[in-house]
Amino acid sequence: MKLLQNLREAIIIAQNRGKKQAEIADFLGISQGAVSKTIKRFEETGSNRAKGMIKRKKAWDEITLKTLIKIVDNFPKRLKACIDANGGWFE
Question: How far is 31 from 11, CA to CA, in rounded Å?
Answer without folding.
Answer: 12
